[in-house]
From TrEMBL:
<dbReference type="GO" id="GO:0016881">
    <property type="term" value="F:acid-amino acid ligase activity"/>
</dbReference>
<dbReference type="GO" id="GO:0005737">
    <property type="term" value="C:cytoplasm"/>
</dbReference>
<keyword id="KW-0436">Ligase</keyword>
<dbReference type="InterPro" id="IPR004993">
    <property type="entry name" value="GH3"/>
</dbReference>
<dbReference type="Pfam" id="PF03321">
    <property type="entry name" value="GH3"/>
</dbReference>
<feature type="domain" description="GH3 middle">
    <location>
        <begin position="349"/>
        <end position="420"/>
    </location>
</feature>
<feature type="domain" description="GH3 C-terminal">
    <location>
        <begin position="435"/>
        <end position="550"/>
    </location>
</feature>
<dbReference type="InterPro" id="IPR055377">
    <property type="entry name" value="GH3_M"/>
</dbReference>
<dbReference type="Pfam" id="PF23571">
    <property type="entry name" value="GH3_M"/>
</dbReference>
<dbReference type="Pfam" id="PF23572">
    <property type="entry name" value="GH3_C"/>
</dbReference>
<dbReference type="InterPro" id="IPR055378">
    <property type="entry name" value="GH3_C"/>
</dbReference>
<protein>
    <recommendedName>
        <fullName>Jasmonic acid-amido synthetase JAR1-like</fullName>
    </recommendedName>
</protein>
<comment type="similarity">
    <text>Belongs to the IAA-amido conjugating enzyme family.</text>
</comment>
Length: 571
């Protein structure tokens, strides 16, 4: 029987979003009320003396701002199987492992049906706006998505990355169908036990359905760049599989093999076509539209730590629109990209006022004393740290992200993601954020372009083992670069940190010369493998841009793979 597909009503979704954002203040009050009513019996809230009050004023007076560390003992009891209401009224049965790429190890956060529903809500909202600008036909999507291992905690709860919990939920598939965004790969590939094998099969499925693919997506855009970099290595093998209709022996998992066998038929014409197209490309420029003639856009989170991959993504995508996906975290979603026409560098996210209760700590003032303000009280042009109160047991939780308010959509703010707050290069009075590092790397890597070489990935570290301490920047680059160019890159990096504290410390040698360490090809792949080994999924992977001494294993991977190092002579 052919299933009748119910498509989403785009106009209705947009209308609902418009009316909700026009009433953002009231919707926030109502949302807080709902969260507190549903979870009022939870031990955590009971102990704070709210006594049934659900208004924002009482909430702020009784409930402290917290970090993940503060909630860790409560979450641990849930993980260990306590069934009493600890953080939520209804017991938590699933745990998300946040990517942990910033802290070094994954954190546990609660996941529940409400979080699932808000995830789908934000997917539907941005889809509605996206599809109005870039309509898609009823085809397929090459979704470069991967699941982590789902395990059981000691207490019997299901634990996996948040994206895994979402992909495994039956509602995910239904929503993708309703959004005409069905993944071209079978479930066995998405949930395959080895991401290298899944990646290969995703590419193969994409090629098999190449004319039907409407868009290419991933959670974070790093996965798209990673996939096409892999394509450059394996394209001949992919062609051979398509020609013969037989999957390479490198794919070893029986479930993946049998799922792929159902799709793979000998198709020498397609193999020839792909072969010809690949040989006709200059340095793989425009690879995506060549392979997938009906693709309308590329979709994935492209802001924040994903920005450095945009250049490569544009190279593969030629003139296809790049659309940044929404803003959220394992802890909860925050905002949707409702302006898909805007290039990713300028992408902003409108907060959905009914998916959580949001507060913002102004960063202009002295942090310790700064009082958080409500969603509708934020000011355009100012930067804030985001605080979430969610339907999944987090109350006034400091997410650690810095955002800038760029405007309002009706009464709900539009946020630009700036950086992680704790990712900071600092030795004494200097303060450089992830964003500052990103800009420095961007400036220095421009010196490389004449040589046609690219910085494939980068990270940093504060080395205090020298006296004075100094910044270390790790680069993985493609090919050989002349010594003089790298020396100049090193100086340029040093000069590009324009923070007054840094510059003055450098001038008086209170901070030593910046060091550029070039690492072997494949080093960042080793880091990725390391995180995947810890239970992270490729879907949520973010290269750690600053590696502290406590993240010893990653630091060791970087340090053990250094091939050359340069010290700045800029000061
Ligand atoms: P995870 O720890 O895997 O749940 O990742 C959540 C974090 O990813 C957020 O706290 C942000 O730092 C980052 N992130 C999520 N969405 C975006 C976005 N649209 N732009 C930039 N960074 C994002």
């Amino acid at each position: 029987m052919i299933e009748k597909m119910e498509l989403l009503d785009v106009d209705k979704l947009i209308e609902e979003f418009e009316s909700m954002t026009k009433d953002a203040g009231n919707v926030q009050r109502e949302t807080l009320k709902k969260i507190l009513e549903e979870n009022g019996c939870a031990e955590y809230l009971q102990n704070l003396g709210l006594n049934g009050r659900t208004d924002p004023e009482s909430f702020k007076a009784c409930v402290p701002l917290v970090t993940h560390n503060d909630l860790q003992p409560y979450i641990q009891r849930i993980v260990d199987g306590s069934s009493s209401p600890i953080l939520t009224g209804k017991p938590i049965t699933t745990i998300s492992l946040s990517s942990g790429t910033t802290q070094g190890k994954p954190k546990f956060v609660p996941f529940n049906d409400e979080l699932m529903e808000t995830t789908l809500q934000i997917y539907r909202t941005s889809y509605a706006f996206r599809t109005r600008e870039f309509p898609i036909e009823n085809g397929k999507a090459l979704q470069l998505i991967y699941s982590s291992k789902q395990s059981k905690t000691k207490g019997g709860l299901i634990a996996g990355t948040a994206t895994t919990n979402v992909f495994r939920n039956s509602q995910f598939k239904n929503t993708m169908k309703a959004m005409q965004s069905q993944c071209c790969s079978p479930d066995e590939v998405i949930f395959g036990p080895d991401f290298h094998q899944s990646l290969y099969c995703h590419l193969l499925c994409g090629l098999i359905f190449h004319e039907e693919i409407q868009f290419i997506s991933s959670t974070f855009s790093h996965s798209i760049v990673h996939a096409f970099r892999t394509f450059e290595q394996v394209w001949e093998e992919l062609c051979a599989d398509i020609r013969e209709g037989v999957l390479t022996s490198r794919i070893t998992f029986p479930s993946v093999r049998s799922a792929m066998a159902k799709l793979l038929k000998p198709n020498p014409e397609l193999a020839d076509l792909i072969h010809k197209k690949c040989l006709g490309l200059n340095n793989w420029y425009g690879l995506i539209p060549e392979l997938f003639p009906n693709v309308k856009y590329i979709y994935g989170i492209m802001t924040g730590s994903m920005e450095p991959y945009l250049k490569k993504l544009r190279h593969y995508a030629r003139d296809l629109p790049l659309i940044s996906a929404d803003y959220g975290s394992s802890e909860g979603w925050i905002g949707a990209n409702v302006n898909p026409n805007v290039p990713p560098e300028l992408a902003t996210y409108v907060v959905l006022p009914d998916i959580g209760y949001f507060e913002f700590i102004p960063l202009k003032e002295n942090v310790e004393e700064a009082k958080p303000v409500g969603l509708t009280e934020v000011k355009v042009g100012e930067e804030y740290e985001v605080i979430i109160t969610s339907f999944a047991g987090l109350y006034r939780y400091r997410l650690g992200d810095v955002v800038k308010v760029t405007g309002f959509h009706n009464l709900s703010p539009e946020l630009k993601f700036i950086c992680r707050r704790n990712l900071m290069l600092t030795i004494n009075i200097d303060k450089n954020t992830e964003k500052d590092l990103q800009l420095a790397v961007e400036a220095a890597s421009k010196l490389n372009t004449e040589e046609k070489l690219e910085v494939l990935d980068f990270s940093s570290h504060v080395d205090l083992s020298t006296n004075p301490g100094h910044y270390v920047i790790f680069w993985e680059i493609s090919g050989e670069v002349r010594e003089e160019v790298l020396e100049e890159c090193c100086n340029c990096l040093d000069r590009s940190f324009v923070d007054a504290g840094y510059v003055s410390s450098r001038k008086i040698n209170a901070i030593g010369p910046l060091e550029l360490r070039v690492v072997q090809r494949g080093t960042f792949q080793k880091i990725l493998n390391h995180y995947v080994g810890l239970g992270a999924a490729l879907s949520q992977f973010k290269t750690p841009r600053c590696v502290g001494s406590t993240n010893n294993e990653v630091l060791q991977i970087l340090c053990n793979n250094v091939v050359k190092s340069y010290f700045s002579t800029a000061f």
